[in-house]
Amino acid sequence: MGFFSLITCYDDNRLIGIDGQLPWHLPEDMQRFVEITKNKTIVMGKATYDSIGHPLPDRLNIVLTSDKSFKAKGVQVVRSIDSLLNLKPFHGEIVVIGGARLYSDMLLFCNRMYLTRYNRAIDVPKNSKATYFPEWNPNEWRLARYDCTTRKDCEFIDFVRA
Ligand SMILES: NC(=O)c1ccc[n+]([C@@H]2O[C@H](COP(=O)([O-])OP(=O)(O)OC[C@H]3O[C@@H](n4cnc5c(N)ncnc54)[C@H](OP(=O)(O)O)[C@@H]3O)[C@@H](O)[C@H]2O)c1
Q1: pLDDT at site 90
Q2: Which of 81, 96, 115, 149 has the most beta carbons within 10 angstroms of its beta carbon?
Q3: Which protein residue's CA is at the shortest distance from atom 37 of ligand 1?
């Protein structure tokens, strides 16, 4: 039977994006992202797909959008959360990779969370659009794995549903 998980990287304020882009460049986190998602199915919102600009290799890429005309080579399009939840056949892990809107819609259905804590409070420039990971209740999750990284300001923390 399949299950949903999510992967994210956020700062002290749960910031995940500024003006449609990642607010940082963290090669350690990128490497972890590849290791965790490789050979799995990933699902992303249209804004996150646009910010990446192409399907990610060695993964089945699903993009969520209400835009009926959207098509892209190497991408499976899904138009609602219901269709995503009813994908068939669905074996293994589908990893939700963002952004903020998709995390909010899918958090409830995820039973694993791969979190990178970037232990800084990144400045959001005036007049820019910041996006944040939704508030979540730590009592609903338990720690599954913790790794410090070569950087003191970055921790890898995996949670599963309590
Ligand atoms: N730090 C991290 O780990 C991380 C990870 C991923 C992304 N990000 C950042 O997050 C930002 C993007 O996040 P975002 O919240 O703006 O956008 P998003 O969630 O990536 O995409 C939003 C779009 O996806 C579609 N969508 C989402 N939920 C839907 C639903 N329930 N039904 C139908 N369509 C749905 C809609 O597309 P249509 O408008 O076309 O219908 C919506 O406008 C960027 O800055 C990105 O760099 C950060």
Answers
A1: 80
A2: 96
A3: 65
